[in-house]
Amino acid sequence: MDAHAEDLDLLPSTRRALRHRIAVAQSEGRAPSVVAAVLRDGAVVWEGSRTSVEGHGPDGNVQYRIGSITKTFTAVLVMRLRDEGLLGLGDPLEKHLPGSGAGEVTVGQLLAHTGGLAAETPGEWWERTPGAQRPELADVLGEEPFRFEPGRRHHYSNPGYTLLGSLVEAVRGKPWEEVLRTEVLDPLGLHRTTAQPQAPHAGGWAVHPWADLMMPEPAQDLGLMAAAGQLWSTTQDLARFARFLLRGDEQVLSPETVREMRTSAAPPEPGFADLGYGLGLQLAESRGRRLVGHSGSLPGFVAGLWASEADDLAAVVLANCTSGLPAATVAMDLVNLVADAEPRMPEPWKPFPEEHPVALDLCGPWYWGTAPHLVRLTADGLLHLGPVGAMGRTARFRAEPDGTWRGLSGYYAGETLRAVRRTDGAVSHLDLGSFVFTREPYDPEAPVPGGVDPQGWRGIGR
């Protein structure tokens, strides 16, 4: 994974700033240890750690518990089932997992935490008690599993991801852990990501809030709740996973599907995620930078993974304390630190390849009513539509085999743009979801909805 690290090496000043950030985090967070890694352009370019044990520090191969980052792995399994046509995101859970007690919730709602389910299980704190206390889904959900009507709001739910783990088992006919190993961990080379700890691994600790003392935390097997938070992993493995979340891997999920996972599927919940929640991924904004990833915590451990698609950067931070060190915030800081200190070099401009046809007659100015817009075609084959000036909607479109263009972003995502031609083959106008764009404002030669005043443009009369 580090084959190209020399070519991507960070400046000494950047490396020192990264070391300083985790040193401050470990000291102020009073964590027994913290380990971190930064991924840039698909390769690990920096690793660091701090520890309270003199002369010893963890490296990228030491396992820590990653808590709810596990949910993203579970979401990947569900999206694989969707891509194989074995289920749909709009399917009610009952269709594939009958008798759950929450069958009206859809698969997509569970992925995005909009199913209305309770945040936690009934009974004792599930993270510090054996999973054997909750042997059935009824024990996980309780007699009143819902807090809100499904689909009405984002409400983070650990039982919801337990249902998704059980869904994977029901459709595959195998245990969640086995499916995860076969379909995700092995193909991505995540051999140090496991459901049970494997040496070398850190021990989990609680640090006294008012005294510099520690107490070991129990490491429980979560049973049915495993799909919501069971995994142990390393910074090296999670860096590989971050690369997958940015680029996809055809062995596991296509780039299009992981892009779908990174797209907001639920509105933000105040105080939780700045930009809402995708499909198994938290979304946030920091310093004007859009980040995707997930935080995680279980007694004795905190974890954070954040990635910036625009900067092709990701950071992972793991620590072995119950609270105190904000691992997700520190990971976000590491991404921002590198991106600000060493901005990504833009790709060289390149023209269209000669063999590619170019729809040149679509380029240039168009008018939606009186609002001027520009259409550009770039060498990647995408059509860009945007306003002249600050006001208006921008969008990108991909060419379809039938000659139309499919919206990829913004207001027009999923919408179809058609170039309507006259009998002589010249473009008359653009039709975008019933909006007509013409070469002149309210062109009388084009079928403008409502028609055009026959007297045309004129000044004020005297």
Structure description:
The chain has about 450 residues and is an alpha+beta fold. A hairpin with a 2-residue loop joins β8 (about 290-300) and β9 (about 300-310). The protein starts with 11 loop residues before the first helix and ends in a 24-residue tail after the last strand. Strands 11-12-13-14-15-16-17-18 form an eight-stranded antiparallel beta barrel. It is about 25% helix and about 20% strand. The model is unreliable at about 1-5 (pLDDT under 50).
Describe the SSE topology.
Blueprint: H1 12-29, E1 33-40, E2 43-51, E3 64-65, H2 69-83, H3 107-111, H4 137-141, H5 158-172, H6 176-188, E4 205-207, E5 214-216, H7 226-229, E6 232-233, H8 235-247, H9 255-261, E7 282-286, E8 289-298, E9 301-308, E10 313-319, H10 327-341, E11 364-368, E12 371-377, E13 383-387, E14 395-399, E15 405-407, E16 416-421, E17 427-432, E18 435-438
Antiparallel strand pairs: 1-2, 1-10, 3-6, 4-5, 7-8, 8-9, 9-10, 11-12, 11-18, 12-13, 13-14, 14-15, 15-16, 16-17, 17-18
Helix pairs in contact: 1-10, 2-5, 2-6
